[in-house]
Amino acid sequence: MSSVVAMLPSRVPLQLPAAMAVSLAYLNAGMFFGWSSPIIPELQKNTSHIPITEDQGSWLASVGLLASVPPTLLLGVFVETVGRRWALLFAALPLLTFAVWQRFATTFGELLATIVVGSVSTSIILPLGPVYLVEIAEDHIRGFLVSMATTMAGLGSLLMTAVGPKLSFFTVTEIMMVWPVLFAAVFWWMPESPYYLLAKHRKDEATKALMRLRGKSSEDEVQAELEVIQRGLEENTQKEVSAADAFRELRRNAGSRRLFMLSMVFTMCVVLSGVDAINANTLHILVESNSSLDPELSAIGVSSSTVLSCTVFSLVVDRLGRKPLLLFSLCGCCVATTSLGVYFFLSIYANEGTTDAVFWLPLTGLIVFFVSYGMGLNSLLWVMPNELVPPSLRVLASSSVYILVAVLGFSDTKLFQVVTDAYGAFIPFWFFATCSFLGIIFVWFFIPETKGRSFADISSEKNFESSPHHDESSQPT
Question: Is 463 exposed, middle or buried (0-12, 13-18, 19+ CB in 10 A)?
Answer without folding.
Answer: middle
